[in-house]
Amino acid sequence: MRAVKDIRRKVRRAQTIVPFGVGGILDIRGESFVAADTRSWAASAERVESPRLARKLGVQELRSAPVIPSGKAAYASRIGPTYVRFPKWLFCPQCRNMLLWNPGLEVRDRQPVCGRCPGGPQLAPMRFIQVCRAGHMADIDWRRWAHSRSEEHSQRQCQVHRLRFLATPESSGLEALRVVCAVCRAGRNLAGISQKNILVQTGQRCPGTHPWHSEADEADPCEEKPQAVQRGASNVYFPITHSAIDIPAPAGLSEDDESAQRVVNHSFWPLFKDDEGSPVSDHLKAVIAVQCDVPEEFVESVRRRYSAEVAPVSFAADSDDDLSIAEWAAFSEPESVTNSKTFSVRRTGLGIDPEESESLRELDACISAVVVADRVREVRALEGFSRYEPSSGDGEEGEGGRVVPVNTHSRASWLPAVEIYGEGIFIAVDEERVSTWEQIPSVSEWTRRIESNLGASFKADRLRGKSGPKLLPRFVMLHTLAHHFIRQLSFDSGYNAASLRERVYARSHAPGSDLPPQAGVFIYTAAGDAEGTLGGLVRQGQPPNLAETLIRLLESAQWCSQDPLCADSTGRSLANLNRAACHACTLLPETCCEIDNSLLDRTLLIGDGDIPGFFRGVLQTALEESAEVVDLS
After folding, report:
1. Is the dihedral of CA 589, 593, 597, 603 positive or negative?
2. Which helix (H) or strand (E) element contains residue 602?
């Protein structure tokens, strides 16, 4: 009896956001698919509660793909997101015939096979596709490519789509791959296919569609030039994601304040708050009152308090649209949050005694607070994506790729999201020390040069959304500290680097703002589930482990296999946004960093001959103590 091959395609729930979210390409078992937009999501998508994140993104709610119970995949109907086969041009690895796949040929849990060859070998997708800066993606017109250098009249007039994808042993590279018409014998190899404007020269245009569009969907008029790229290239898909730590209401609120908290967190609150006197206002008020279990008069009173600007600050603490404001407040005062199932934090410390070594005492003076999070809940949402070039975030033409929303047909009322439970370590540096350090002329001048590169970058608006209106030296220093912290924890905690994420709290505020200054980092697990994680990170955040980890990361930060090129760098990576930072010493997997491995510099962390790093005193003292031990031995 012949065993039936299990070819079910499985995607984890977290992967429906990144890397296989809307518009992302999924390669699995020799097949290639692209995730369709949210119109294809089933009605059984589960709601994800994160009012702060939903308000910032301007949607009514967030939804997560439903999970198929373990062992039930063979019996479950399609309840998750739709993945469409792409590219549609396939070829047989034996007879080399090409086939333009028709969705009507799809059979559930069956791979496409060649009907001409004995044994039915599986068809393989073509390697190259076309994308444009407007976010469109389509198959290359291989018939036009094969006939683009035709010399005979019959070849130029050939309209047949019978093609073959040949590999010749006489040459190497793309010159060995050739698309040939099976009728008129016209053909062309793939040499130069990645050159700019090569598709335009062959008469190809962007169709203005996405792979999941049906014939009923109207194509967008697109004037962008299509570019040929490899299907797995890094510039095919740039997802735009947002995340927020679930911060509960502070402890000690009165019953009315807790009710007001529920009202303000309701998804209809932004509409109700601004629609006073409109016909829909009464309906919104009734819905909010029923779902929040409060009288309609109470909902109206909350709106009046907001209008009069006398509402309690407790539930409007994140008046700034940056989500870090409320998170910083919660980590700075962990005692204010109690009895929460999703946010369990407690204050600890480095545990340094007066009898400890001078380097540890110096480190203790630099660190003002240590908080371990036994359980945190993070919500990540996918807003959209861009192709060929990352989005600049400002919507201006000519700067970066255009953002494609998760719903390409109409304005999205909800966004795909996922919730993840994990653990983490929060470290805050001493505000007085870091403020004094920022006033050193060499430090401020060095940061000003980085900021000048930032201002000229197409990512300026998006990066300033994290750093604030002005790039402070503390942001670059703490961001670099977070990267080295993750690298060191990957050795000490049992998690690999790709399982950890960072949140940097060093945002500058607008002049005249009364928001408190920020100076800290939060390192947390990024691959947990509903049961949380194993506690390895919390263990490393307690004494004496944390102090030893920090000393080791500072010692390792002074060495790089690329030195002196890395240490003496005056600008590297995209748009020269990094200084002394490279893959050998500082950079992390893309899933770890919240700003694309940008704004990093070991110099501001540990210093060099001219610029004093914030932790230079700790490092020098530790090195002197190590030298004394060596001399004594």
Report:
1. negative
2. helix 602-606
pLDDT tens for 80-93 read 788 899 999 999 99
Report the C-alpha gap between 478 and 119 in whole angstroms: 59
Structure tokens at 190: 């793939």
Q: In what order do the strands lie in the sheet with 137-138?
A: 137-138, 128-131, 227-230
Rounded distance, CA 405 to CA 384, Å?
Answer: 4
Helix/strand/coil (H, E, C) string of 437-497?
Answer: HHCCHHHHHHHHHHHHHHHCCCCHHHHHHHHCCCCCHHHHHHHHHHHHHHHHHHHHCCCCH
For residue 559, what is the DSSP state? -
Distance CA 326, CA 316 (A): 9
Residue 438, both tokens: 């920022």
Exposure b/e, 466-485, CB count within 10 A at least 16 = b:
bbbeebbbbbbbbbbbbbbb
**49-63, 309-323, 441-455, range with greatest mean pLDDT:** 441-455
Q: Residue 430: left if φ>0, alpha if ψ -120 to 50, beta else—which one?
A: beta
Q: Which residues contact 32 (CB under 8 A, 6 or more apart)?
A: 25, 26, 85, 86, 87, 125, 231
Q: Strands across the sheet with 163-167, in order?
A: 163-167, 177-181, 187-189
How many whole angstroms separate alpha carbon 449 and alpha carbon 443?
10
Question: Which of residues 275 and 131 earns the better pLDDT score?
Answer: 131
Are 427 and 521 within 8 A, CB to CB?
A: yes
Amino acid at 81: P
Which of 536, 537, 507 shows the shortest CA–CA distance to 520? 507
Here the tokens at position 61 are 């709610």
pLDDT of residue 308: 47
Token pair in block for residue 308: 């009069």
With 90 as the cut, is the pLDDT of residue 584 above it? yes
Tell me which residue has tokens 């003292």. Answer: 621
Spatial separation of the C-alpha atoms in residues 149 and 153, rounded to whole Å = 11
The 10s digit of each residue's pLDDT in 456-494 is 887 788 888 888 899 999 999 999 999 999 999 998 887
* Residue the block writes with tokens 């299907």: 231
- Contact between residue 31 and residue 107 where contact means Cβ atoms under 8 Å apart: no
CB-based contact 339:332 (threshold 8 Å): no
Average pLDDT over every residue of 155-181: 85
pLDDT of residue 70: 63
The H or E element that residue 371 is part of is strand 367-386
599 conformational bin, left if phi > 0, alpha if psi -120 to 50, beta if neither: left
Residue with tokens 């400002």: 394
Q: Is this prediction's pTM over 0.70? A: yes
* DSSP string for 25-92: EEEETTEEEEE--GGGS-TTPEEE--HHHHHHHT-SEEEEPPPPPTT-TTT----S--EEE---EEE-
Question: What is d(CA 292, CA 262) in angstroms, rounded to the nearest whole number?
Answer: 6
3 state DSSP class of 244: strand
User: 501 forms bridges with which residues in the sheet?
Assistant: 524
The reported pLDDT for the residue numbered 169 is 82
Closest alpha carbon to 491 in 542, 549, 539: 549
Average pLDDT of the residues in 365-369: 94
At which residue do the structure tokens 């303000």 appear?
Answer: 264
